[in-house]
Specification:
alpha/beta, D-Maltodextrin-Binding Protein, domain 2, about 40% helix
């Protein structure tokens, strides 16, 4: 293998994208109805505010800006990204929940959206099942369990063996309530160990500390760590999805390594306030169907190791409800608190 993106990696990833893309292309015939729907609805007539509950420069922000630019081109109105960071995204979510449901304030959020209010924000946190109008899920990616090159951890089995023999381990995540945090806790439960969660303010500092040997384990999305895996600063011990990633086919899943119940992915979605007009939802869903078929978007998603997975509002609502319930029960069972 000559590098991280070897021919076999690219071929496997391309095949996966072609298979998924076929379904998106079938749906793309709906895109022509967007202009007609806009004409009938007379929306939008002014700039749209796309709220991102995270700082500029991170994966959520970068992806949100990509979609904002493409959405603006289709809707013929500016789509302005508004970063309202804090409390694992709940500050931005609350802002949108309280907004007028006129379609001019919408939320771009990661899957932390379904989990974080269970841990942070208290009574002021929005109800993810009742306070929003789900519009579309627009991408997903498995997570990775990684260790630093100097950690001395050679495998998942080796980590668990050391932990059961009394060695204390910490693990890093980009924040409380993130899928990475939850993956660590699910793994703790399944493996019968207790790694201590160390929440960071974003993925970048957690990777820096793992590479520097200050923390032994980190959970991250693929796109954030590929450069560090390429130079062997970070070593992937496992993927968290049921099947191996086509981008990293040599990395075994946790399911393969004796933890079959672990199947966790990160995703990104668009939501509006409760009561958003169904015609506006339809326009936005149609627009994202077209966006996810644009070659340059697919190319950029590939560089971020994100699969262009599309769900409509009904499917997204089911995803949010299921994850909110599952992780809510886990949080209660383990009596998890914000560290």
């Amino acid at each position: 293998m000559t590098g991280l993106f070897s021919a076999s990696f690219k071929t496997g990833f391309a095949r996966s994208w072609l298979a998924r893309g076929a379904g998106l292309l079938l749906a793309s015939c709906l895109a022509a109805s967007a202009a007609q729907a806009q004409a009938n609805n007379n929306w939008p007539q002014r700039p749209i505010n796309l709220v991102v509950g995270y700082p500029a420069g991170g994966t959520v922000d970068i992806l949100g800006r990509l979609y904002a630019d493409k959405l603006a081109a289709l809707l013929k109105q500016p789509v302005v990204v508004n970063n309202r960071a804090g409390a694992s995204g709940t500050i931005g979510a609350q802002f949108v929940a309280r907004a007028n449901p006129d379609g001019y304030t919408i939320l771009f959020a990661p899957s932390t959206f379904a989990i974080a209010p269970l841990l942070v924000g208290g009574a002021s946190s929005p109800d993810v099942n009742a306070d929003f109008t789900p519009i579309a899920k627009v991408g997903s990616t498995p997570l990775l369990m990684l260790t630093g090159a100097q950690s001395g951890i050679s495998s998942v089995a080796n980590l668990v063996e050391q932990a059961k023999n009394g060695k204390q381990f910490n693990y890093a995540s980009p924040g409380a309530g993130s899928p990475m945090h939850m993956t660590g806790e699910v793994f703790n439960r399944q493996a019968g160990i207790k790694m201590l969660h160390i929440p960071y303010r974003g993925i970048a500092p957690s990777l820096t500390d793992t590479i520097g040997g200050h923390i032994p384990i980190v959970f991250s999305t693929h796109g954030s760590v590929l450069p560090y895996m390429s130079d062997n600063s970070l070593i992937a011990l496992a993927s968290t999805s049921k099947t191996r990633s086509p981008l990293l086919p040599h990395v075994p899943t946790l399911a393969e390594q004796g933890y079959p119940e672990i199947d966790i992915t990160a995703w990104w979605a668009v939501l509006g306030p409760k009561g958003l007009d169904p015609s506006i939802v339809n326009i936005l869903q149609t627009a994202f169907t077209e966006i996810l078929n644009q070659p340059d978007v697919l190319e950029q998603l590939q560089t971020m190791a994100i699969t262009p997975e599309l769900q409509d509002g009904t499917q997204l609502a089911q995803t949010i409800r299921a994850e909110n319930q599952y992780f809510g029960e886990l949080i209660k069972t383990l009596d998890l608190k914000v560290e």
